[in-house]
């Protein structure tokens, strides 16, 4: 992980809890690339705690860490972290995805509610006219009472969003091919096809993982199904959407968007027209854990490490090879 990340992940209490069970040297600087670590240090590693930017634990690293039996990731997806050799050697893996899902869902819900209220559009209008605004005439469809919100993906984050939206008077539609009608009813949402969701929703929020089957799942045809003036909120991966098609829709002014930019462009090219569009809210990958939220990830990783050491079952956040392949 990045050398300065441990100080932001682990507060004094987390450090003390970890050191009560394991031999941990917090004074030793973290390394961004484990391949550059002292081989003698690697040879004595039983448990590895990783963070963003850790690189892949490949066969070379596994050979250098013959005692390694557990990896606890203080971050989200482990798809690019855990090499196939880890699974072959039965190294146990946990992820703090549940902890990272909390701020992402909070961000998404805030943006959904503000979008349905047309807060972003009203700001643009007010700044332009600099005078009295007739709200009822200018924003006749604004508000969250009975508004239709579409969620693409009943993922870990998607389900958090569903839970957080429950107190509001919204009609929530969900598209997820793996969501059964019975489960949708239990969640208090309606399961529909993607086309119906896009055409009916005033706000569409993306929560699907980026897989080969979901890459570009919103193309020109799908974006054209959205209502004029509807808002697309993307706190998932940018590559879920055909970028050029989205830019065209946004430049035309037909759609609005809240984009927490991730791949394929992180950051967006400096020449991107999205920076200058008043119908686009851009943030630099802020939805996930940042600032004081990082300690939630550290606490989760420490809890998982201690739980696994004690022999608890199940261990919070434990990831299988199969589930790792579908992580966002």
Describe the structure.
The protein is an alpha/beta fold and 328 residues long. The protein folds into two domains: 5-99 and 291-324, NAD(P)-binding Rossmann-like Domain (Rossmann fold, 3-Layer(aba) Sandwich), CATH 3.40.50.720; 101-283, NAD(P)-binding Rossmann-like Domain (Rossmann fold, 3-Layer(aba) Sandwich), CATH 3.40.50. Helices cover 38% and strands 13% of the residues. The strands form two sheets. The protein has a seven-stranded parallel beta sheet, sandwiched between helices. Strands 1-2-3-11 form a four-stranded mixed beta sheet. Helix 13 (243-252) links the parallel strand 8 (231-234) and strand 9.
Layout: helices, strands, pairs:
Elements: H1 5-9, H2 12-19, H3 39-43, E1 47-50, H4 59-64, E2 70-73, H5 84-88, E3 92-95, H6 97-116, H7 119-129, H8 135-138, E4 148-152, H9 156-165, E5 171-175, H10 181-187, E6 190-191, H11 194-200, E7 203-206, H12 220-225, E8 231-234, H13 243-252, E9 256-260, E10 280-283, H14 294-310, E11 318-319, H15 321-324
Parallel strand pairs: 1-2, 2-3, 4-5, 4-7, 5-6, 7-8, 8-9, 9-10
Antiparallel strand pairs: 3-11
Notable characteristics:
328 residues, Rossmann fold, 7-stranded parallel sheet, elongated
Which ranges are low-confidence, i.e. pLDDT below 50, for 5 or more consecutive residues? Answer: none
How is the CATH topology of the largest domain named? Answer: Rossmann fold
Total beta-strand segments: 11
Radius of gyration: 22 Å
Share in β-strands: 5-15%
Just give the CATH class of the largest domain.
Alpha Beta
CATH superfamily of the largest domain: NAD(P)-binding Rossmann-like Domain
- Going across the biggest sheet, name each strand in turn: 6-5-4-7-8-9-10
**Total of DSSP H or I helical runs spanning 4+ residues:** 15
- Strand-and-helix sequence, N→C? HHHEHEHEHHHEHEHEHEHEHEEHEH
Distance between the termini: 19 Å
Summed up, the domain count is 2
Helix content: 25-40%
**CATH architecture call of the largest domain:** 3-Layer(aba) Sandwich
Category by helix and strand content: alpha/beta
Shape descriptor: elongated
